[in-house]
């Protein structure tokens, strides 16, 4: 195992000037730090709380990875446990990441929030930092934004019009069924978080209603292997975003729902409905105790199953091309069909006491004063590099490939961003710090 060079930094005293500042101490930002240290580039990582805190703070108790453990790779470090095809739990991921941090010494400044990024008067950038009520500034030539893909939880505008007797929360606040008020639960959203939280509540014996969107699904295991292992062999996680079949529309729909719980299995919403879970289409409005849904349930279920079977066909074609010895192919056949698409739910009559919003996140880069964003507030970047000299991003979904934003693709993305920064820093004649330890 390679260990990155150590760059010492006093965590109690943020510098006033430094060549590179990384904002965000999650696995993405720390991966860039690892590579910059390995290249001898002086830098600092500024984290508002503690390194990688979100893994412990924003995942529910029964959370598991949905990608196999062998996908877990970070700079100089990879999963080497006894279950490479299994799925680590939340606590196991936290421990694994703690083990990675023991292999190097990132120059971290913790419990410090960057509240403003602006162009400096003499070039470069000026950051405004806040820590324990104290405001300081830091000047730098390069900034890497590693604050996560989209940090602001989405809640619909009509949420405030729903009966106040109903407890509302976002998926990142959910921990377990026992912490919720007694009664039925409505989960809104069928991406990975929504589908798995609905399953968690269902397995705990809670009465569950689920409003589903257009998220697709995928087989957990197919023809003797994990489907994601097949997809990795097929190179789909390495295809650059601009070359991905189907373009942006396909990329927006790659949050396939599946689970790694209990060794991994499909998430079959039709099977849940057969066992008593209430399914609905897209939630469009709510007032008091009445919610209204678009009549999209049947179409959404059919579309998710079509993607499931399409992926199976792609794997079949790969097996045929390569001559891999594998069990025979199969297709999913629906185990339940709705009699009609429900368009209304009376929360009081159904005994619903909790709504969990699992409809995603939105970007919030208002603190960045730079022309690097599109009309939707998303960074305009290529492999993390923007047209604004010195401004880069890391850890975004589809930043470069499908693997970006996941453990599988972070190392490669971080290495590229670090290479660009190292070249630009050297080109400016800025200071490079030599590696001082391994």
From TrEMBL:
One Pfam family it belongs to: Pyr_redox_3
GO MF terms held by the record: flavin adenine dinucleotide binding; monooxygenase activity
InterPro entries in alphabetical order: Auxin_biosynth/cation_transpt, CHP04046_FMN-dependent, FAD/NAD-bd_sf
Assigned keywords, A-Z: Oxidoreductase
Protein name: MSMEG_0569 family flavin-dependent oxidoreductase
């Amino acid at each position: 195992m390679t260990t990155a060079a150590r760059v010492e930094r006093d965590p109690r005293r943020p510098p006033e000037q430094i060549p590179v500042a990384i904002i965000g101490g999650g696995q993405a930002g720390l991966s860039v730090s690892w590579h910059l240290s390995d290249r001898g580039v002086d830098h600092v990582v500024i984290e508002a709380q503690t390194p990688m805190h979100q893994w412990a703070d924003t995942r529910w108790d029964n959370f598991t990875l949905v990608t196999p453990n062998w996908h877990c790779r970070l700079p100089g470090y990879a999963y080497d446990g006894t279950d490479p095809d299994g799925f680590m739990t939340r606590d196991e991921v936290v421990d694994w990441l703690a083990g990675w941090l023991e292999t190097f010494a990132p120059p971290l400044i913790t419990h410090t929030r960057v509240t403003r990024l602006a162009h400096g008067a003499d070039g470069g950038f000026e950051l405004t930092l806040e820590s324990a009520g104290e405001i300081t500034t830091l000047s730098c030539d390069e900034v890497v934004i590693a604050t996560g893909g989209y940090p602001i939880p989405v809640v619909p505008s009509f949420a405030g019009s729903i009966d106040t007797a109903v407890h509302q929360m976002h998926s990142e606040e959910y921990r377990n069924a026992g912490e919720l008020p007694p009664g039925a639960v409505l989960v809104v959203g069928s991406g990975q978080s929504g589908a798995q939280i609905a399953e968690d509540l269902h397995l705990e014996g809670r009465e569950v209603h689920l409003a589903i969107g257009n998220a697709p699904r995928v087989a957990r295991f197919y023809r003797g292997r994990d489907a994601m292992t097949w997809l990795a062999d097929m190179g789909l996680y390495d295809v650059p975003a601009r070359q991905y079949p189907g373009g942006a529309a396909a990329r927006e729909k790659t949050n396939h729902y599946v689970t790694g719980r209990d060794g991994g299995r499909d998430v079959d919403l039709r099977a849940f409905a057969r066992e008593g879970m209430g399914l609905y289409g897209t939630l469009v409005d709510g007032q008091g105790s009445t919610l209204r849904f678009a009549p999209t349930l049947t179409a959404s279920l059919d579309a998710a199953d079509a993607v499931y079977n399409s992926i199976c066909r792609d794997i079949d074609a790969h097996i045929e091309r390569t001559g891999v010895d594998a069990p025979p192919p199969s297709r999913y056949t629906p185990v339940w069909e709705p009699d009609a698409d429900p368009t209304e739910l009376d929360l009081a009559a159904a005994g619903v006491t909790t709504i969990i919003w699992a409809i995603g996140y939105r970007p919030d880069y208002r603190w960045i004063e730079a022309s690097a964003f599109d009309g939707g507030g998303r960074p305009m970047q290529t492999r993390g590099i923007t047209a604004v000299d010195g401004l880069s991003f890391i850890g975004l979904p589809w930043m470069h490939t499908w693997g970006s934003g996941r453990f599988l693709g972070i190392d490669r993305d971080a290495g590229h961003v670090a290479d660009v920064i190292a070249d630009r820093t050297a080109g400016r004649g800025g200071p490079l710090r030599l590696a001082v330890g391994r």
